[in-house]
Write a structure and sequence with these properties.
Blueprint lengths: L1 E6 L5 E9 L3 E5 L9 E9 L2 E12 L4 E7 L3 H18 L1
Antiparallel strand pairs: 1-2, 1-4, 2-3, 3-6, 4-5, 5-6
C-alpha cells in the first residue's frame, strides 16, 4: 500500500510502501535514509477521499530500505480507523 510520511523537525515529505501493518506499528519500504529514533507522521490512504494520519517513531532501519515504526499517541478515532484497515487487509490476505 503506497503511503507518504513527513519527517518531524525537517518537514521533509517522503514516499514509501507499507509492507506490513498492525495496531502497534508496521514496516515501510522507502528509498530515503532515516535515523532510528526519528519521529514521522505517516499518511495512510484508506479510501479515495480519506487519509489516516498517524504519529510514529522509527524503531528499526535496514540497509534494504526497510523502516520499522511504532505508532504513538493514537486517539480513539485513529485507533478505530487503523483497526478497520488492519482487519480489511488481513481479510484480503486470507
Amino acid at each position: 500500500m503506497p503511503v507518504t510520511f513527513t519527517v518531524v523537525g525537517t518537514g521533509r515529505v517522503c514516499a514509501g510502501m507499507v509492507d506490513n501493518i498492525s495496531l502497534g506499528g508496521g514496516c515501510i519500504l522507502t528509498e530515503k535514509n532515516l535515523d532510528q529514533g526519528a519521529r514521522i507522521v505517516v499518511h495512510i490512504p484508506i479510501a479515495v477521499d480519506t487519509i489516516v494520519t498517524l504519529e510514529a517513531a522509527i524503531v528499526r532501519t535496514s540497509s534494504l530500505g526497510e523502516v520499522g515504526v511504532a505508532f504513538m499517541s493514537l486517539g480513539d478515532e485513529e485507533m478505530q480507523r487503523l483497526a478497520e484497515l488492519v482487519d480489511s487487509r488481513s481479510r484480503k490476505d486470507a
